[in-house]
Amino acid sequence: MSDLPRKAAARTARLAALPLGYAGRKTLGLGRRIGGAPADAVLSEVQQRTADQLFRTLGELKGGAMKFGQALSVLEAALPEEVAGPYREHLTRLQDSAPPMPTQTVRDILAAELGADWSERLVWLDGGPTASASIGQVHKGRWHDGREVAVKVQYPGAGDALRSDLRQLARLGRTVGPLFPGIDVKPLIDEMQARAEDELDYALEAEAQAAFAKAFADDPEIVVPQVVEVGETVLITEWLDSTSSLAAVIAEGSVEERDHYGELFVRFLFAGPARTGMLHADPHPGNFRIIPNDDGTPGRLGVLDYGAVARLPEGRLPESIGNLMRLCATGDADRVLDGLRDEGFIRDKIRLDAKLLMDYLSPFVEPTLTERFRFSREWMRAQFERINNPREPAYSIAIKLNLPPSYLLIHRTWVGGIGVLSQLGAEAPFRAILSEYLPGFAEPEPA
């Protein structure tokens, strides 16, 4: 593979084949059932073969295809177990890896971006990548002052591939949707399209990472690497010594590791906006790196990839979110209804039952009702089933609510964060963290 697959027609054809392949396997499965094969065995085989094709295709294409797969991986905990089981291995693989591009291509890009004398500053470059992701890959190197660095290089043609893939996935949204029951893929793809240009802008990413690195420089638990140099498609940062990512903890971590890193994950997501005015909006586990203590016990959490960042208009998370969550927690349904209407979540002529609204919002509020809350796949799956099942009362609320554009990235990050915590099965002091960092959530001081 010379670099990211770039031929638009070929990429489009492979993406278009995904729902067709699923439909064909379902038809074949029906034939086998008519022929006497057990329904459960047929279903499992169809899903396993679908998972093989789907995630192999998304991973190999990289670009927007892989980014879509990574976004879905965060929501894996919400899928029904009979779907999630066959997909889980493939989803996890997308969280942490992708096929690499040749080292010579990397060197050519460095020369074009940093100048012919680039090797005088970057005095050593590893021959192979340490990580490959949706629009770029990372090599380990050494800067001229002795610092070990991470050299992130964007794939040639990444911009065109990202835009093309997302356009094609948007057209296929209705037919891809059945592969992920309970997850509405259309708004996910729409939001990814809106953020595509920011993700391709390494100068903008470097600016965000530098702000986070400064804000967390003295933090004893969170590590953000400093930016060293940036070009249009090259970003060099200090190297982060890490043994694995949150994906490994999800797969095989102990209860102690799950709880420890789950709490750090939550603290970072909410402390970031409070310290920088920006929200790290790409919570998939591959971006969160494990840095154990010297004795092997759970240690610090390293955070990478600042390409998807929400720059908050008031320099913090909206106080209205905290106020509404506090009112939900106290059961003040009428004030919650009024508050959501004021914020644009409920359009003027829409009428909602306040009690059903509270029931719909409970997944966001339940973790704040106890001192420590244990997230789990079973819990998240039950919440998604309740609000996405047309037979459930809460579903009537879901189809009437409106999500204002200013809340889109916040909402996706919040849901994605809950998805990661549910994959971890982590217990965390969610209420205390929100009280510390979410404006408006803590009880107001008495007058």
Descriptive notes:
- The protein has 447 residues and is of the alpha+beta class.
- It folds into three domains: 100 residues, no CATH class; 98 residues, Phosphorylase Kinase, domain 1; 119 residues, no CATH class.
- It is 55% helix and 12% strand.
- The protein is globular and about 65 Å long.
Uncertain regions spanning at least 5 consecutive residues: 1-6, 19-47
What composes the largest sheet? Answer: 6 strands, antiparallel
Computed Rg: 22 Å
Binned strand content:
5-15%
Alpha plus pi helix count: 19
Query: How many discrete domains?
Result: 3
Whole-Å distance between the termini? 67 Å
Total beta strand runs: 14
| Dominant shape | globular
What is the overall pLDDT average? 80
- Into which percent range does the helicity of residues fall? 40-55%
What structural class do you assign from the helix and strand content?
alpha+beta
Write the layout of secondary structure elements.
Layout: H1 8-34, H2 39-61, H3 63-74, H4 81-96, H5 103-114, H6 118-121, E1 122-125, E2 131-132, E3 136-143, E4 148-154, H7 158-171, H8 173-176, H9 185-200, H10 202-215, E5 222-223, E6 227-230, E7 234-238, E8 244-245, H11 246-252, H12 255-276, E9 278-280, E10 288-291, E11 300-303, E12 309-311, H13 319-329, H14 333-342, H15 354-365, E13 373-374, H16 377-388, H17 395-398, H18 408-424, E14 427-428, H19 430-437
Parallel strand pairs: 5-11
Antiparallel strand pairs: 1-3, 2-3, 3-4, 4-7, 6-7, 8-10, 9-12, 10-11, 13-14
Helix pairs in contact: 1-2, 1-7, 2-3, 2-4, 3-4, 3-7, 7-9, 12-18, 12-19, 13-14, 13-15, 14-15, 16-18
